[in-house]
Design a protein that fits this description.
Blueprint lengths: L1 E2 L2 E2 L5 H24 L2 H17 L7 H25 L1 H4 L17 H22 L2 H25 L3 H9 L2 H10 L4 H24 L1 H7 L4 H5 L1 H18 L2 H4 L5 H23 L5 H32 L1
Antiparallel strand pairs: 1-2
Helix pairs in contact: 2-3, 2-8, 2-15, 3-5, 3-6, 3-8, 5-6, 6-7, 6-8, 7-9, 8-9, 9-12, 9-15, 12-14, 14-15
Length: 318
């Protein structure tokens, strides 16, 4: 309709309905793509990488490594998560925890997901290689392949020790953050790597106990499925017992001070008490409580490293 110099468009009720449906469908698709990236996992990965960046130098790590490095690492982690979704779509459909994901439900196709993963991966490598350094790009790509292909395709389906061997990829972020700032791999970065490497089995096995029936139904040889819950609980205690002294290494090597050491002992004691409790308590809710606490544990442990690092610097400045 034309009125004076203005043009007024009249939209019918049916057209409004179609427009609204299109907008809602687009928003839903964006949510599905976002879900494929496993954002909660990516946040933890990037957080440990950023801590590695700050620990690598006595002062400010630099704007470019911090911003571009963090973004590049997060994009690579997201790409690995998307590939994991594609490769696990069949077994995800058999598990109550994962059956409503976008790919098992057919809300997105494998082609769409893989295209998305490829874009994320290429952007990540270009950013890290051209704007940070190629060592970080290479290590990040290796971690992506380690998790998305070696762990998901081979280890996850081949051995109950899958999470122990595959844990190396998940333990890499602090090293990636360190190399993003310094361009080299330092022994202190490897200590951070070792902490996450030892943390991964008790963290994931607690989830595996909680989801044992799902893994058994999907034919995935997780430790509780192949060796039973009692054996898995014993190994959770074993790895937690090994983890606690390893977390004191930053203090023993001079990387951190008493603030971190105190936090490591307190957090480690609570984690150890949880692991001991799992030997006696058959409460079905306990494994998920341990799993959730393990995430909090790692975040607080690395936060303590960060706080301690800058407290020591401040003392040195005085």
């Amino acid at each position: 309709m034309r009125g004076g110099n203005r043009v007024i468009f009249l939209i019918t009720k049916d057209e409004q309905t179609l427009l609204s449906a299109g907008i809602l469908q687009s928003r839903s698709a964006l949510r599905d793509f976002f879900e494929l990236t496993k954002p909660k996992v990516v946040v933890l990965i990037v957080f440990t990488a950023i801590v590695g960046m700050f620990l690598a130098v006595p002062g400010w790590p630099g704007l470019m490594p911090l911003t571009i490095g963090s973004l590049g690492i997060s994009l690579a982690a997201a790409a690995a998560a998307v590939i994991n979704h594609v490769l696990d779509a069949r077994i995800d459909l058999l598990m109550s925890r994962t059956k409503n994901r976008p790919l098992p439900q057919g809300r997105l196709s494998d082609f769409q997901a893989l295209t998305f993963a490829a874009i994320l991966c290429v952007l990540s490598m270009l950013m890290l290689g051209l704007l940070v350094n190629w060592l970080t790009a290479f290590l990040t790509f290796s971690s992506l392949i380690g998790y998305a292909v070696i762990y998901t395709v081979f280890l996850k389906r081949a051995t109950p020790q899958n999470i122990v061997i595959g844990g190396a990829a998940g333990a890499a972020p602090p090293v990636l953050g360190w190399t993003a700032v310094t361009g080299e791999i330092h022994t202190d970065a490897l200590i951070l790597f070792m902490i996450i490497f030892m943390w991964t089995p008790p963290h994931f096995w607690a989830l595996a106990i909680s989801q044992k029936d799902d893994y058994e139904r999907a034919g995935i040889p997780m430790l509780p499925v192949t060796h039973g819950e009692k054996f898995t609980r014993q190994h959770i205690l074993l790895y937690t017992t090994l983890l606690v002294p390893i977390t004191t290494a930053p203090y023993l090597t001079g990387m951190s001070g008493l603030i971190y050491l105190s936090a490591a002992i307190l957090l480690g004691t609570k984690f150890l008490l949880y692991a001991i409790r799992m030997q006696k308590d058959s409460d079905p809710k306990l494994p998920m409580q341990v799993f959730r606490f393990s995430i909090t544990y790692l975040m607080l442990l690395f936060l303590a490293l960060l706080i301690d690092h800058y407290y020591i610097i401040r003392l040195g400045a005085w």
